[in-house]
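Page 42, continued from yesterday. The earlier attempt failed because a stray header line got pasted into the input along with the sequence. Redoing it now with the clean sequence only.
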Amino acid sequence: MQPPQTHVDLLERPLFAHLATVRPDGSPQVNPMWFLWDGEKGILKLTHTKERHNYRYIQRDPRVALSIADPDDQYRYLQVRGVVDSIEDDPTGHFFQVLSQRYRGTAGAVLDRDVRVIFTVRPTGFKTH
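This time it went through. Structure tokens are written below.
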């Protein structure tokens, strides 16, 4: 599934996505996250660690939602609903470095590389405003 062309720029720019996961009691938890959009595959990739709550929440329930607001017009946004299709280990922290370069312009040492994972999100729906 591809996003509306009118909002692809929000996926291509290094903006924060607010990731919503489902807690065990059914309530949402939302955290700002770095991400990378792969337009050819139509997927989003995020980095996380095995030590955080979201990792356990996603293992239990892979449904997620992300909201990305345009910093130049806060009323313009893209909502992505999806499913985490895969969680792969990133023992070198390479993907974290890719995102660090994208967001900070530099890629240093990844101190928690031994617990780093990559979430791959397959979008199931988009909403825009």
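Notes: Helices lie at 8-12, 53-60, 94-104.
Reminder to self: strip header lines before submitting.
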